[in-house]
Amino acid sequence: MVKGDEGEPRKAPEPSGVDLARQALAAAREQARARGLAAGAGGKKRAQHPGLRSGARADARDPMPLMAALERLRTERGWEMPLADAGVMERWPQIVGPEIAAHCEPERYEDRELVVRCDSSAWAAQLKLLAPQLVARLNKELGQGTVRLIKVQGPGGRPRRYGPLRAPGSSGPGDTWG
After folding, report:
1. What does the DSSP 8-state code read for residue 45?
2. Compositional bias (Low complexity) spans (predicted)?
């Protein structure tokens, strides 16, 4: 407290943004000095750590596998969905196996839902039965919570036309029976 002209105590002025920045810089410099990383007069770091050099043991500067680097980058930047999308689409054959991958392929992945199109209605029915196991396998391989639901679609033909020229009962090539 500072005493005013009339002898009454008055509050010291609140530090401004510049004063706060100077205080923070001084505190950071003091912490750096305590760790031995203080900058010299020229602004260069002093090389005073003889133990900080490359050696036989692994450290943070060593090269790492690509997937580990991408995983670290994904977590640092919060890129959950784009990499999950690429993982589901690119690794589909390895995760589900060659037999399922030969007949069913992922079309799109959004909001943790995977849409898969099968080349026959028989494979679509089979994949609907296998969907819970596939969701568990995909989440195990790509990270928990990556896939919440698999939507299975049958074979795609030309779009069905509705209107006055449509003959009743002719569903078209929507099924592969026969």
Report:
1. B
2. 20-38
What are the structural domains, with CATH classification, of the chain?
80-153 (3.30.300.180)
Segment 37-78, tens digit of pLDDT: 655 544 455 455 555 566 677 777 778 888 888 888 777 776
Residue type, 33: R
Q: For residue 178, what are its two tokens?
A: 């026969």
Concatenated DSSP letters of 58-124: --TTS---HHHHHHHHHHHHT-HHHHHHHHHHHHHHHHH-HHHHHHEEEEEEETTEEEEEESSHHHH
Provide, for the chain, the percentages of residues in helix, strand and coil under a 3-state DSSP scheme, each rounded to the nearest 5: 45, 15, 45
Reference 87, options 149, 133, 138, 153; nearest CA is 138
DSSP 165: T
The sign of the torsion formed by the CA atoms of 172, 103, 105, 147 equals positive
Kindly provide the b/e burial profile for residues 4-39, where b requires at least 16 CB atoms within 10 angstroms of the residue's own CB: eeeeeeeeeeeeeeeeeeeeeeeeeeeeeeeeeeee
Please, are residues 84 and 138 in contact by the beta-carbon 8 Å criterion? no
The answer on pLDDT for 29 being more than 80 is yes
Residues 6+ apart with CB under 8 A from 134: 95, 96, 100, 127, 150
